[in-house]
Amino acid sequence: VTNAQFPEALRTLPPVTQLYVSVDAANPKDLKTLDQPLFADYWERFLSCLDLLKEKRQRTVYRLTLVGGYNMDDPSASVSKECHTGAKPRGSSAAASAVGENSINEVERMCCRSATSGNKDDYAETACGCLSPRTEGGQEKSPGEETPQSRAAIREEITGEKADKVRGKAKPEGQSLTDRSAAAYARLVLRGSPDLIEVKAVTYAGTSKHSKLTMKNIPWHDEVVAFCQTLCDALPTGEYAIACEHRHSCCVLIAKTSYRRDGVWHTWIDYDKFHQLATSGNTTFTGFDYCAPTPSWAVYGSAEAGFSPLEKRVFSKGKQKRLLRDKARTEQGENANGAD
């Protein structure tokens, strides 16, 4: 992992499995504010590192961290909307109609916010539909769920803007902070041509005199997904697409579409193959030479949303924990009655 401030070290770096570059901002002013660089020529160093990244033949990755109100739309500015299951915040009036791009994902965000925070006491008893597995391939989806295809149609319906995707040409900047930020990051992507782009929501670590961030600045997973789609739309058509997600971490992986072979993403690493190539003396091998198929549960849009089948999700508090506990007790009672 590099912070893109030492181009000479990057130039002489031998082949590595995966070279990460932290792209903390898309312009000099924000980079200085966020990273507080040591060098006066920090921006020139940053761009030089991105140029060198394009020359690397092995896997390269941009790492982006999203902060609401800084490099994407402020999550707290969204218009409240009724849950697509019919659940509404207690004591509230009917939800306002969706206005503007911030409302595109509000339905799923309201549901997932209460679930992931464990605080569903402000919501009706009905379980949220967005907690249901999201599936593709003709299988049933959750009510009101968006797909990558439908999201563009919804954006066009709300904003009246059509996606201007021309091969080799970036999409013109929009008016929202998310659109402007995505367009700026797209220019950096075209400059460094990374194999992968890892996008995650900032992790809240408390408020202090050194940080003014609050929970209002923390994007939800669906907002991260929406930003990634906007970024893909701002890039030349067909070059990048959302490949993987891990909902629990609010993390999304964008990949070059060349890593999708015969309809199957190959974003994982064959480490044995890499070590074989790295010790062969041949430094011209590429990331495609040691890629491995992505497990179906890690692919974007899968029912598991990035959760390994070998892992078990634990709800430490709130109604979800109580619902699971009551369900387990009911099943135990039914099994006992069946045994009798």
From TrEMBL:
Q: Which residues cross the membrane?
A: none
Which Gene Ontology MF annotations are present? 4 iron, 4 sulfur cluster binding; lyase activity
**What InterPro entries does the database record attribute to this sequence?**
Aldolase_TIM, tRNA_wybutosine-synth, tRNA_wybutosine-synthase
Composition bias of kind Basic and acidic residues appears in 323-332
Tell whether Signal is among the UniProt keywords.
no
Needed cofactors: [4Fe-4S] cluster
Pfam families in alphabetical order: Wyosine_form
Q: Where is the signal peptide?
A: none
The Gene Ontology biological process annotation of the record reads: wybutosine biosynthetic process
Question: What UniProt keywords are attached to this protein's entry?
Answer: 4Fe-4S, Iron, Iron-sulfur, Lyase, Metal-binding, tRNA processing
Cross-referenced Gene3D superfamilies: Aldolase class I
- Locate the tRNA wybutosine-synthesis domain: which residues? 191-256
Q: Which domain of life is it from?
A: Eukaryota
Cite the residue spans of the region called Disordered: 77-99, 133-152, 321-340
Please report the name of this protein according to its UniProt entry: Radical SAM domain-containing protein
Q: Which organism is it from?
A: Toxoplasma gondii RUB
